[in-house]
Specification:
globular
Length: 447
Amino acid sequence: MSCLMVERCGEISFDSPDQNAKCVRMLGDARVRGQTGVLSERRGSYPFIDFRLLNNTTLSGEIGTKKKVKRLLSFQRYFHASRLLRGIVPQASLYLLDEDYLGQARHMLSKVGMWDFDIFLFDRLTNGNSLVTLLCHLFNVHGLIHHFQLDMVTLHRFLVMVQEDYHSQNPYHNAVHAADVTQAMHCYLREPKLANFLTPSDIMLGLLAAAAHDVDHPGVNQPFLIKTKHHLASLYQNVSVLENHHWRSTIGMLRESRLLAHLPKEVTQDIEQQLGSLILATDINRQNEFLIRLKSHLDNQDLRLEDAQDRHFMLQIALKCADICNPCRLWDLSKQWSERVCEEFYRQGDLEQKFELEISPLCNQQKDTVPSIQIGFMTYIVEPLFERWAQFTGDTPLSENMLNHLRRNKTKWRSLLHKQHSSSRSNDHSGQVTGSQEQTLNEEETP
């Protein structure tokens, strides 16, 4: 579909911000329902988030006339299409790699099952196409292309859709994060306790869910969407708002690409439903629900992985682990992810402050430092989950490696927090780790 055709799709207009909201909600409530009966969102259906709407007392007349939304699509797609229509060539949009870079990328893929895999380096070597390159490789490695008789061109087109619907301007929730989660999921799918029971369908579901679990993420959290009365919050009744959007958007892309169109109707219906179940499990608000259930299974030793339902539950747990595995990576990688996610928090906090909204927890750069945020995250979210995961896998080398990294990284953050409290009280408390602090920390660390 050409850019001009894309720009014309779903054209709407309105005279005021109130009409804008009503129109968007109306279209949102009329999402496409396919033959399988699963509600899906049109590809890139996330509307352009114009934060001027929060300040509509002074700009209400400008919104409806100067900035009409011409189609219901993601901010990323709106920005990309508008640049193309204005004749501006997007930066880094082509697959231009010399043989040296391709060789290095191929070498990294040969070690894709290693826990020290550097996704940032891989993304640079693939010219920002880490998610597409990684998924094509993993689908081939796991024999999914042959098993499901997938067309390689169609697969590539679908993966490009997914990668492009991530917002590259997000410090954390972008396609590199999706690739990192997918690589971690690949490692977990190879754990003997799980791998011995997985079917090709399980593996494909796990990889697809990992790749698309945050697609079209706007860079703000659910409470922000709720308090700004975003149409998605209304559409999904304030429950797993982002996760529902990620799932329905993924279904929309699957249908548009026709990747699975050759499969029987009941198979595609099952795949869409299970994808939803996996992606919805990543809602952090459901953390205790899954932990309690996992603890019960492990204590009672009643997991039967021959049973599809129990396998699916462990896929949910594996995806949850992959989604928050950053603190279990090598320090250099873990620190980058920590600073990226906090930068995204701080950007939301700055927006909230600008528009006189209550600043969300962890989003106040003046009070919430990176070390304090990470220590709390590791203590209350990451450690309980990964300790149970290690109990399930039977303390495999991978599980032990992850827990060791987690403990060391937590010690480093505690040391940095102590240094901040003792020597930086008069400075700004942005939480960024300086080079001298890290060098001192590395010198003092005991292996």
